Amino acid sequence: MTETASGSARGSRNKGTKTAKSGLRIERIHTTPGVHPYDEVSWERRDVVMTNWRDGSVNFEQRGVEFPDFWSVNAVNIVTSKYFRGAVGTPQRETGLKQLIDRIVKTYTKAGEEYDYFASPADAEIFEHELTYALLHQIFSFNSPVWFNVGTPQPQQVSACFILAVDDSMESILDWYKEEGMIFKGGSGAGLNLSRIRSSKELLSSGGNASGPVSFMRGADASAGTIKSGGATRRAAKMVVLDVDHPDVEDFIATKVKEEEKIRALRDAGFDMDLGGDDITSVQYQNANNSVRVNDEFMTAVENGTEFGLRARMTGEVIEKVDAKALFRKLAEAAWACADPGIQYDGVINNWHTCPESGRITASNPCSEYMHLDNTSCNLASLNLMKFLNDDGKGNQSFDAERFAKVVELVITAMDISICFADFPTQKIGENTRAFRQLGIGYANLGALLMATGHAYDSDGGRTLAASITSLMTGTAYKRSAELAAIVGPYDGYARNAEAHKRVMKQHADANAVAPRTEDLDNSIWAAATEAWQDVLRLGEKNGFRNSQASVLAPTGTIGLAMSCDTTGVEPDLALVKFKKLVGGGSMQIVNGTVPQALRRLGYQEEQIEAIVAHIAEHGVVVDAPGLKTEHYEVFDCAMGERSISAMGHVRMMAAIQPWISGAISKTVNMPETATVEEIEEIYFEAWKMGVKALAIYRDNCKVGQPLSAKKKEEEKEEVTAKAEDTIRAAVEKVIEYRPVRKRLPKGRPGITTSFTVGGAEGYMTANSYPDDGLGEVFLKMSKQGSTLAGMMDAFSIAVSVGLQYGVPLETYVSKFTNMRFEPAGMTDDPDVRMAQSIVDYIFRRLALDFLPFETRSALGIHTAEERQRHLDTGSYEPLEEDLDTESLAQSAPLAAVPAPPKPVAVAGVQAPKTAHSSAELVEMQLGVSADAPLCFSCGTKMQRAGSCYICEGCGSTSGCS
């Protein structure tokens, strides 16, 4: 039952017991007495008009919104479209940032006073002003549900992360479906562990075999695929975990591998398997992230090459023994093939568990950062680390540890207050969250901070700086939690778990004491962190703690863009050039502002910096930049591109900061397409050794159902080709005779010239036809004259043209060459062919659309954008009767004017080769990288990775939890 602000629900939220001496004294950090934060900034009105770049339609429009003049266009667009409440065009609609911040901050302040958090009204006012200032200046952000719900008439859900529970009964399984659906409906994600459900190898009380958890996953997957998360078009976000000793673990590991093979086979047979395509819903298990929970016993068996027992769920007895290494290999092979399942390490997770007497940690939220008790939730907030870097512009830098700690105290206080007034999707989650009060403070912009301070992401110095900040953040959070416990009491479950909680605090403090120090920049942060952990141990012994958990590292997708962060969560920078929207409309690419900061820190002069930045603007990389020392290249290594950070570099960063994170870290370790299964095994094994709690890998372009057997691939290809040719014959209803007589084209011949872009590669195609009898020759122009590629294209054009003139039907070429996959591949600038597996795939799809009759190309699964839209509207690709005359004319005269390609985007110093709509697309343009990230459902922009999810920097939509 969903809880509301009813008297019974509110009455269960106990107030603190206030005495004459109780209540927090709130210290000013940024604000000035007698001056409101709004009065210290300049405000301006802007028009927010967001369009879908694919068809130019307006997705969102609100004019005259009021924001500070220093807010970026992207941040204004995202906050206006995502977080303003009220119907657009009505008086109830919020029209400026002041209204939005006031709605939230005043709700928090009022609740803080009501629940006795503040020593005096003056302290409440300082709290209100400081929280306002921090949000106004993008110093931190609450998670998205706070912006959506707080201060509105709807239930005030503040949590983004949920963990559910399911037992081995039909009632519990049906409750799982219902509870998960309610969470999805509210726009959040949930995770759970299915290991309590008995396996398909065990018997029911009736004597028959159980269905097993993998079977029940189908129903939950279908439910998640049906419910639009938060009423939007993106799919629900969910995590499914299974223990490695469950007898059905091999079936669980193989679920998505089999489905990816199915996707490829169906796509090659002509079905619409594009993201959001009509036929993709026939594929199962696509709405969840899967993870295998491995324990130390299993990992030790892998290390020693011994057997491992799979245990019955009801009795715990071993019912089957398997080779641990072979099972670990299957896990890595599945991750190599389709990126699922990820891995969670049960031993380290529960070793750092503050509440073991109340239950084990068995699962996580969808993005794997929140890990705590079943049927609980966590509200998040993230700090913008770049706001604490003091830089005089001459290479002298320091991290303001004192101010950072004060902001952490402010934010933790606000986060804890929110649990007092928050609503929850189920009664069980509400009761448990109030009893354990889990919080998840974290940060964003770490990658930008490291680069700006001259640290390589994969370096001892970079890891040490990140670790010191993380230790200070979590130590300060627990210190404030202990201070709150003295005022409003410890969490309800503390008494039962006091010894375990204090043990974990000592583990954090001990890790801080032995952590390496490398330079002046991090030494001062370590000193502040050491002092904070000493206070944690002292105050915790005296007062207990208000919160069972304090910190996590979330993806910070939408909120990272709202804070104008260059990097999300713990991630490194995507690339050295960024796509930037301009206030007056249009866009341009710029070199990251962190690059000049880093160069100054490294000792370069302004003239050198200018030359290096100009080189990066033109080439997108630092390699061969004039005057840049090769030993400094690593400082500018990014997640993508020529000098991308190694997979193990990502794991080492996670391991460096994990000892000071209460929960875990949302992160996907990106690997190149050439990565091997052995490399994935190494990453999964070394992450266990290093003490990481959870991770997932993503091998580029693995989400195409690549088979594990080359022989199987060839057999399937031959079978699919045979079926396609049968379909073509049925469609054209005639026998085609091949005669060795060449029919040459006349001197004057009609033709179409098409410019195209496939995965960043540009080219031109001229298709000439007989005056009365279809296509007769093709000319392809790519690359410079005399190059190997140009020569091969010429030879290919001649071969196809001669074949056409000797009577080879175009449909035969189309059936043979479409779906052929090689680089470059990816997005095109053709609205009818949005994605292409290769240049050849695009060419013959375009020729089919221009020259083949509807019935023939429809049998091959090739349709125009208009036809696909018609199918969505009417259920049929066939044109309506009134459209037949127009369509017949178009087919009989295939020489209609081709739209001119879009104009290039303005570049800082150079012209972009084509239009980009996000930094992810800009990286592909600059570096020729083909990233197989999905397109945003809302605006069509290519998304980019944010932790374990994807984020659209065009409109702020995410593919997972906000």
TrEMBL record:
<dbReference type="GO" id="GO:0000166">
    <property type="term" value="F:nucleotide binding"/>
</dbReference>
<dbReference type="InterPro" id="IPR013678">
    <property type="entry name" value="RNR_2_N"/>
</dbReference>
<keyword id="KW-1015">Disulfide bond</keyword>
<dbReference type="InterPro" id="IPR013344">
    <property type="entry name" value="RNR_NrdJ/NrdZ"/>
</dbReference>
<keyword id="KW-0547">Nucleotide-binding</keyword>
<dbReference type="Pfam" id="PF08471">
    <property type="entry name" value="Ribonuc_red_2_N"/>
</dbReference>
<keyword id="KW-0560">Oxidoreductase</keyword>
<keyword id="KW-0170">Cobalt</keyword>
<comment type="similarity">
    <text>Belongs to the ribonucleoside diphosphate reductase class-2 family.</text>
</comment>
<dbReference type="InterPro" id="IPR024434">
    <property type="entry name" value="TSCPD_dom"/>
</dbReference>
<dbReference type="Pfam" id="PF02867">
    <property type="entry name" value="Ribonuc_red_lgC"/>
</dbReference>
<dbReference type="Pfam" id="PF12637">
    <property type="entry name" value="TSCPD"/>
</dbReference>
<dbReference type="GO" id="GO:0031419">
    <property type="term" value="F:cobalamin binding"/>
</dbReference>
<feature type="domain" description="Ribonucleotide reductase class II vitamin B12-dependent N-terminal">
    <location>
        <begin position="48"/>
        <end position="138"/>
    </location>
</feature>
<dbReference type="GO" id="GO:0004748">
    <property type="term" value="F:ribonucleoside-diphosphate reductase activity, thioredoxin disulfide as acceptor"/>
</dbReference>
<feature type="domain" description="TSCPD">
    <location>
        <begin position="749"/>
        <end position="849"/>
    </location>
</feature>
<dbReference type="GO" id="GO:0050897">
    <property type="term" value="F:cobalt ion binding"/>
</dbReference>
<protein>
    <recommendedName>
        <fullName>Vitamin B12-dependent ribonucleotide reductase</fullName>
        <ecNumber>1.17.4.1</ecNumber>
    </recommendedName>
</protein>
<dbReference type="InterPro" id="IPR050862">
    <property type="entry name" value="RdRp_reductase_class-2"/>
</dbReference>
<dbReference type="InterPro" id="IPR000788">
    <property type="entry name" value="RNR_lg_C"/>
</dbReference>
<comment type="function">
    <text>Catalyzes the reduction of ribonucleotides to deoxyribonucleotides. May function to provide a pool of deoxyribonucleotide precursors for DNA repair during oxygen limitation and/or for immediate growth after restoration of oxygen.</text>
</comment>
<feature type="region of interest" description="Disordered">
    <location>
        <begin position="1"/>
        <end position="23"/>
    </location>
</feature>
<feature type="compositionally biased region" description="Polar residues">
    <location>
        <begin position="1"/>
        <end position="11"/>
    </location>
</feature>
<dbReference type="GO" id="GO:0071897">
    <property type="term" value="P:DNA biosynthetic process"/>
</dbReference>
<feature type="domain" description="Ribonucleotide reductase large subunit C-terminal">
    <location>
        <begin position="159"/>
        <end position="698"/>
    </location>
</feature>
<keyword id="KW-0237">DNA synthesis</keyword>
<keyword id="KW-0846">Cobalamin</keyword>
